[in-house]
């Protein structure tokens, strides 16, 4: 209940800020004050909270991709932004990258290989690629 309230207060604040309105700031602050200052639980207010996640994003989040990839920072593998900038979202690229996620491999970014993901369905892999290629 409290978490839910906090999340909606934050969402309202974000929404207001996004719309350029400042008049409701008092209300948001009031709401925040009534919450215990205890360790802010940010789990409900991840960046982009409120925006419905695409299927590809949800799939990606449920897999091991994040151990090696972040949206805007190179980890073991290239960042999703780098990938999006390298490949235009054409059918051939989406198909090629989906196969690469399933079979793994190296050579396009260096010698570090990506682990294969044989249990991933091709269509799901394509959804993930579409999500990645949208991260420009
Ligand atoms: C063990 C670390 C690791 C994991 C886990 C991993 N990747 Fe990768 N990924 C890499 C590396 C390293 C590369 C660069 C491969 C190359 O040089 O061709 C890469 C490359 C890619 C590319 C670009 C491929 C190309 O040919 O340019 C995509 C797209 C990608 N990964 C998506 C994913 C997705 C989606 C997942 C989760 C299902 C995932 N990766 C999991 C390490 C990883």
TrEMBL record:
A single GO molecular function term of this UniProt record: heme binding
Disordered as annotated region, ranges: 23-55
Superkingdom classification of source: Bacteria
Signal peptide start and end residues: 1-20
UniProt PTM: Binds 1 heme c group covalently per subunit.
Compositional bias of kind Basic and acidic residues: 24-33
Limits of the Cytochrome c domain: 51-136
InterPro entries: Cyt_c-like_dom, Cyt_c-like_dom_sf, Cyt_c_ID
Positions contributing to heme c binding: 65, 69, 114
Name the record gives this protein: Cytochrome C
Organism: Chitinophaga parva
